[in-house]
Amino acid sequence: MAESPSDQTLLTGLLNGDEDALLALHARYAGIVYSVAYRVLEERMAAEEVTQDTFMRLWDRAETYDPARGTLLPWLLAIARRRAIDVLRHQQRRQPPQHETFSLDEHPYLWEQVPGSTDHDLRRTLIAGLESLPEEQRQAIALAYFYGLSHSDIAAHLGAPLGTVKTRIRLGMRKLREFWLVDQPTENPIRSDQA
């Protein structure tokens, strides 16, 4: 069986107008992009639209991706998350969850949207990274990234100082980045002096 082309190979094709490269990246990452959009929006059709918007952005602006800053997937997820939050804010701000803790098992089917063994491994890596965080960091990140709350809203929801919330998110994101880089192949290595 032929080896799948790397993200960088597909991005090069994308920059040259190769629609098959876009389709291959969509097949590879649409499930996880959809999962992030759905976690923010909690509405299937809106999450599907955000997923399509994300890949259209990739098609239209692939040249803005900088491999020196990290791998492709986190860049795509950041686009999807920002777009989903924009949609959410346009509709109306959703209330934060009623419970005080965030569980990755609340909606397990979201993580099952990613087909294929490679994506299954990717999903497991993302879940493991989140589960490796201390509860207060995981909770703050979940409220920001899955519920679309601002830092101020998170501070009010948790009854914590704004600076504490920002620190929890910053530390948690740093740990996730380190976790991600350790677990990923070195297709786009980032030198330690760039981190």
Outline the structure in words:
The chain has 195 residues and is mainly α. The protein has two domains: 1-94, RNA polymerase sigma factor, region 2, helix turn helix motif (Rna Polymerase Sigma Factor, Chain: A), CATH 1.10.1740.10; 99-185, Arc Repressor Mutant, subunit A, CATH 1.10.10. The chain contains nine helices and no strands. It has helices at residues 7-15, 19-41, 44-61, 72-91, 108-111, 117-131, 135-145, 151-158, 162-183. The radius of gyration is 17 Å and the shape is globular. The model is unreliable at 107-118 and 186-195 (pLDDT under 50).
Features:
disordered C terminus; 195 residues; 2 domains; mainly alpha; globular
CATH topology of the largest domain: Rna Polymerase Sigma Factor, Chain: A
Taken as a percent bin, the fraction of beta residues is under 5%
- Helix proportion: 55-70%
| Gross geometry | globular
Helices and strands, in order, run as HHHHHHHHH
Mean residue pLDDT:
77
Largest sheet: none
Q: What is the CATH top level name of the largest domain?
A: Mainly Alpha
The CATH architecture term of the largest domain is Orthogonal Bundle
Number of strands: 0
**First CA to last CA: what distance?**
36 Å
Structural class: mainly alpha
CATH superfamily of the largest domain: RNA polymerase sigma factor, region 2, helix turn helix motif
Number of domains: 2
Low-confidence stretches: 107-118, 186-195
Please count the helical segments.
9
Taking all Cα atoms into account, the compactness measure Rg is 17 Å
